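Summary for the steering committee. The consortium agreed at its last meeting that each partner would contribute one worked example illustrating the joint modelling workflow. Our contribution is presented below. We chose a case with several input lines so that the handling of multiple components could be demonstrated. No manual editing was applied between input and output; the record is shown as generated.
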Amino acid sequence: EAGVAQSPRYKIIEKRQSVAFWCNPISGHATLYWYQQILGQGPKLLIQFQNNGVVDDSQLPKDRFSAERLKGVDSTLKIQPAKLEDSAVYLCASSLLGQQSTEAFFGQGTRLTVV
Amino acid sequence: AQSVTQLDSHVSVSEGTPVLLRCNYSSSYSPSLFWYVQHPNKGLQLLLKYTSAATLVKGINGFEAEFKKSETSFHLTKPSAHMSDAAEYFCVVSALSNAGKSTFGDGTTLTVKP
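What follows is the complete predicted structure of the assembly.
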């Protein structure tokens, strides 16, 4: 079974530039999550999709972050413009229907450095 | 509301000795609890999960955890540490009645000395 695919693995940009990350979840997984993991901290949920609808985006900084999952499969997360404090690993995960007893499978993440 | 507190940011053990990583949680709902491991430059891997069945949960690589509702704890243990156990460990709480939203602790770094 193929895992959650993310690209790119690493990205370095200057502040005020824009950047986009891509995620392809495990086939058949209706729920997709984007997390931000700042160095030394646990992952923090940014947004949760169920199919192509947003379930929770309460912690997404909507003035600069956006995410979409147009066809209910793969997803993109965009930051525009980036700030220094956006330097982090961005993790994508997927699960079956978001049920509490269902494991979330994580991609390897995209490490973003904003300089 | 829900939250997770991992009581130790760093734990160091000698190879062959027991491992204890402590986790306390808070949840207004009936929670599910998970432990994930993260090796350097690798993705998060599920070690074990509690979902309202048996309170003693066995996971991969010899790890286990016990759900204690009265203490709101879900500590992770292993009888004998191996060098390959050195990694970052995360305790996670989620609840279906909270839209399945998962909340992570800040992690515990486990160091294993030869």
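Chain B has a mean pLDDT of 92. The longest strand of chain B covers residues 87-94.
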